[in-house]
From TrEMBL:
Highest taxon in the source lineage: Eukaryota
Name under which the protein is recorded: DM2 domain-containing protein
GO cellular component: condensed chromosome; nuclear envelope; nucleoplasm
Residue runs in coiled coils: none
Biased segments, Polar residues type: 17-37
Pfam families: SWIB
Source species: Caenorhabditis briggsae
Residue ranges occupied by any DM2 domain in the UniProt entry: 219-296
Region (Disordered): 1-53
InterPro entries reported for this sequence: SWIB_domain (IPR019835), SWIB_MDM2_dom_sf (IPR036885), SWIB_MDM2_domain (IPR003121)
């Protein structure tokens, strides 16, 4: 008896996904305990096959049958080049996101004041109010536009408020007029600070008051002021620590101050000796020695006089423009490109469709080859197919025998076969008779 198999499910074909065949033993070879263990044990889950670039390629034999498939292969080669370019650019963007990228913008600061006149009580229960003045410190970005969202459907980032650009604000009034307890107004940033668009101070009085406004910028990363002597050598007055070390290294390389024998030694020239106080130092000593020459940057200072406005003028204001550093908005788009899962999911879905279509094409080609060979050489094809199926059946049942002889029915009607069957049945009958006599306790004479 031969097993039947539909076209496209043959165990042997030139390409495509071959059918996996698992060998089994004859019944009765397992013990009851082993059979119970195999029955309880859940079937192992096959690990998903990892897709490769070759799985999207069309087989050369299929390309010979259909010339238009060359266009697909050309598109596949272009896709591979684009994927490599995108992967390289993605790495460049990741490196760029690690480095601080700042852009300078113009911040306009408004310092204004208004006077509130003295008011006499109009009724008996009302209190009189003294003349007062109100000082305001406000600001806004000149080129501040409504930021657009990097991804459609998301809300744009809120605008930065005035206080977010500073670490602290100090307003110093005339000490003689307001005493040691009322002449200073201070604001310092804390982790719980709520950002605001401006600051205001109210005090009683109608005389002119000189005040000084001190604003300390909040730089990220922090900037430091160099010692005047070192600033003159390097040509920079204030900058971040990495930039200062980079400028110092450029000065050392330009003037050849690195020791030729011991490369980790710096031979200080006259100017560096005056700055660091040593003639020779190691590179690892530079951060500690440089720390002694760095100071906190000076705050921005604005002088303002609070006095009564002229007739017809309600408010006196003065504006100042300063440069502030902000995060480059391009980094937002770069981060969205790197971390956007929608693009990755779309590409994976399209790749999966390509894999499925190529697998269907290979299966259809296998079926075509089956029918094409059967059409050209039906007799030889059926003979080879039966031989292949018979060989597979022998492997499955773990049997040995003459495959060629068992293909014919004459082998089963010979006298030797009939005698063998009778001997087998006689042996089985005697075995059953002995088992029955033993169970009944009957002795055979």
């Amino acid at each position: 008896m031969h097993s039947q198999q539909r076209p496209g499910q043959m165990g042997r074909h030139p390409y495509g996904t071959p059918s996996n065949v698992q060998q089994t033993r004859r019944p009765g070879t397992f013990s009851a305990q082993q059979q119970q263990m195999h029955a309880v044990r859940p079937p192992p889950t096959a690990a998903p096959k990892k897709k490769r670039y070759a799985d999207k390629c069309i087989h050369p034999k299929i390309r010979e049958l259909e010339p238009d498939t060359e266009n697909y292969m050309a598109l596949l080669a272009s896709e591979q080049r684009i994927d490599s370019t995108i992967a390289r650019k993605r790495l460049d963007i990741q490196e760029a996101l690690k480095r601080p990228s700042k852009v300078k913008k113009r911040l306009r600061i408004y310092i204004s004041h208004t006077f509130i006149e003295e008011r006499q009580p109009e009724r008996e229960n009302e209190d009189a109010s003294l003349p007062m003045w109100e000082l305001r410190v406000e600001g806004r970005l000149l080129d501040d536009q409504s930021p657009q969202s990097a991804v459609s459907g998301q809300r744009p980032n809120p605008k930065k408020k005035f206080s977010s650009f500073f670490k602290s604000l100090v307003i110093e009034l005339d000490k003689e007029m307001y005493g040691p307890d009322q002449h200073l107004v201070e604001w310092h940033r804390t982790p719980q600070t709520n950002e605001t668009d401006g600051f205001q101070v109210k005090r009683a009085g109608d005389r002119p008051v000189k005040c000084r406004v001190l604003l300390l910028l909040d730089n990220h990363p922090s900037k430091f002021k160099l010692h005047p002597r070192l600033a003159k050598v390097l040509g920079i007055a204030a900058d971040t620590r990495p930039k200062i070390i980079e400028a110092l290294w450029q000065y050392i390389k330009t003037h050849g101050l690195q020791d030729p024998q011991e490369r980790d030694i710096i031979n200080c020239d006259t100017f560096l000796t005056q700055c660091f106080g040593v003639a020779r130092m190691r590179f690892m000593e530079v951060p500690n020695k440089l720390h002694q020459l760095l100071q906190q940057i000076d705050p921005l200072e604005f002088n303002h006089v609070i006095q009564r406005p002229k007739e017809g003028q309600e408010q006196v204001s003065t504006c100042y423009d300063i440069d502030v550093e902000m995060e480059d908005p391009v980094k937002q788009y770069m981060a969205q490109f790197i971390h956007n899962p929608i693009l990755v999911n779309d590409i994976q879905n399209l790749d999966q469709k390509c894999y499925d279509i190529i697998e269907q094409i290979n299966e259809l080609k296998t079926r075509r080859d089956f029918y094409a060979r059967f059409y050209t050489e039906p007799t030889e094809f059926i003979r080879d197919w039966l031989m292949s199926q018979n060989s597979d059946l022998k492997h499955l049942n773990d049997m040995n025998g003459d495959v060629e002889a068992e293909r014919y029915s004459a082998a089963y009607v010979k006298s030797e076969t009939e005698e063998g069957v009778q001997r087998y049945m006689y042996q089985k009958v005697n075995q059953k008779r002995l088992e029955l006599e033993q169970s009944l306790g009957v002795r055979s004479n």
